[in-house]
Amino acid sequence: MRLLLLSNSTAPGRGYLEHATGALGEVLQDVRRLVFVPFALADHDGYTATVAKALAPFGIEVAGAHQDDPIRLLNSAQAVFTGGGNTFRLLRELYRRELLAPIRDRVAHGTVYIGSSAGTNVACPTIRTTNDMPIVQPPTFDAAGFVPFQINPHYLDPQPGSTHMGETREERIEQFLEENDVPVLGMREGTWLRREDRSLTLGGDDAGARLFRRGSEPAELRPDADLSDLLACEIA
Q1: Is 69 designated active site?
Q2: Is the pTM of this model over 0.85?
Q3: Which residues contact 168 (CB under 8 A, 6 or more apart)?
Q4: pLDDT tens column, 180-224
Q5: Residue 83 has what DSSP assignment?
Q6: Catalytic site includes residue 117
């Protein structure tokens, strides 16, 4: 299984996917056709055009999953990229269009999976650690399970002196762990995960990530951290 799971697709002052050019170049090295899953946003054509433009320098042909028979597209592609937006809308459409199982099958048989933000959320066992507002109701929160732990993209650290009176991201993840005994990786902006079969590595910005486990203090992780042991988790 080959995965590239991005916390975000756009970094301040940089173009779409520009901050992850190196990682994309590595994972897309043998890819000529890619299916883009645009369902986290409402404008499927515009979103697909943005991705096609960003991946043009790699010489990759991009087709939106909404533009033709998606099963035929998946069977003829070497990669699938699920873009960010609203995770609830994305998962609802994956179920409505009966695409979650075919994508899971293709990835299990070697198709490269790239996810960004919402696309990273649906690579987890469930979407219960997303930051998004539930603007629609999917039939279930169960997702693809390409990794057996949870991810919180766009992770934000608590800010000392902040006047915000709501829960911090850390508090919300701790509440999740009160109900679920499964690790949660809080990925800060500019970071990503690379999976190559049984190897899992954190990459990207020096800000790194935080790993939350029930009953333990959060662990700070830096780029190049080997997280392969997380692949041994049992999906709850």
Answers
A1: no
A2: yes
A3: 156, 158
A4: 999 999 999 999 999 999 999 999 999 999 999 999 999 999 999
A5: -
A6: yes
